[in-house]
TrEMBL record:
InterPro entries in the record: Beta-lactam-related, Beta-lactam/transpept-like, Diverse_Enzym_Activities
Pfam families for the chain: Beta-lactamase
Sequence ranges assigned to domain Beta-lactamase-related in this UniProt record: 28-262
Organism field: Spirilliplanes yamanashiensis
Annotated protein name in UniProt: Beta-lactamase-related domain-containing protein
Length: 299
């Protein structure tokens, strides 16, 4: 580890411990050139809710399904959806995502959650406008189950987790038996780093190579919440790409340095309903510090 990299990590550690805005941060892991150069756990469970990082795992599994021939054409209609696989992957299905179709309202239903997501009114022509869409990721999980003829968790275990050496996880399903595509998959920080390494290797041995390249390449201009371009359920910016989740979950990949940086946070989330958490006002993601202090040294 170079002196500049060591100093950058030390600066991040100092701010994590000294600034109350980062009081919920639970883990920081840095790998460069395939080697772990920093790995620190601060609080909370080690295998924890990844929130929206789940979406990027779903996209990775679609890449595996493309490689195996379960999904031969991304521009074909996804099973059970009124749009294509590609439109789900790029969040361009053109449907409303707020009010009754916001994901917390959908998950509060006792049944019929997929039907509620599908019933959202059309706002744009499919494939045109990015709109951050939790429901699209859940439709994608349902479509993947239909295409592979197996539960998403089982497909993930055999095609992704086992090959990467991931042994501890928990993936909840909704009342219709569909594993949640938008969030709440539980993984450890080291396992999240393995996913970043897989993307860095172009999906080697697991994903279709062309799909892996497209996943990590901007497909549209993106928008909130990250306000950078969007690939396949993955954000793309000037130095690389990243998966982002609420409360500070992130996998940041800097290809020029062969680097993968993982941050996690423990918001003490209770799904309810209504959902609650213990995040203090003004909380910040540790990824802010990765962008401010670490990426300038790596990129």
């Amino acid at each position: 580890m170079t002196a500049r990299l060591r100093a950058a990590i030390a600066g991040i550690e100092e701010q994590l411990h000294g600034d109350p805005a980062f009081a919920h941060v639970s883990h920081l892991l840095v790998r460069v050139g395939g080697r772990v150069v920093h790995d620190a756990h601060y609080r909370g469970p080690r295998v924890a809710d990844t929130f929206s990082l789940t979406k990027s795992v779903i996209a990775t599994l679609v890449g595996a399904a493309v490689r195996e021939g379960y999904v031969p054409d991304l521009d074909a209609a996804a099973p059970g959806a009124d749009c294509t696989w590609r439109q789900l992957l790029t969040m361009t299905r053109g449907r409303a995502v707020d009010g009754p179709w916001e994901i917390d309202a959908v998950m509060a239903l006792s049944s019929g959650r997929l039907d509620r997501i599908r019933s959202a009114p059309r706002l744009d022509e499919p494939g045109v406008t990015f709109r951050y869409d939790n429901g699209a990721a859940h439709l994608l999980a349902a479509a993947l189950r239909e295409a592979t003829r197996m539960p998403v968790e089982r497909y993930a275990a055999t095609r992704l987790f086992d090959p990467l050496g991931i042994t501890a996880w928990d993936w909840p399903a909704d009342s219709d038996g569909v594993h949640l595509g938008f969030g709440h998959l539980r993984l450890g920080a080291a396992d999240l780093a393995e996913l970043g390494e897989l993307w860095l290797r172009g999906g080697e041995g697991i994903m279709d190579p062309a799909f892996a390249r497209a996943m990590t390449t901007a497909q549209n201009p993106g928008g909130p919440p990250e306000n950078v371009p969007y690939g396949y359920l993955l954000w793309v910016d000037s130095y690389g790409y990243f998966a982002g989740g609420w409360a500070g979950q992130s996998i940041t990949v800097v290809p020029a340095a062969r680097a993968v940086v993982v941050t996690t946070g423990d918001p003490r989330f209770d799904p309810g309903p209504p959902p609650t958490d213990a995040l203090r006002d003004g909380w910040r993601s540790a990824r802010d510090l990765v962008v401010e202090r670490l990426i300038p040294v790596l990129a």
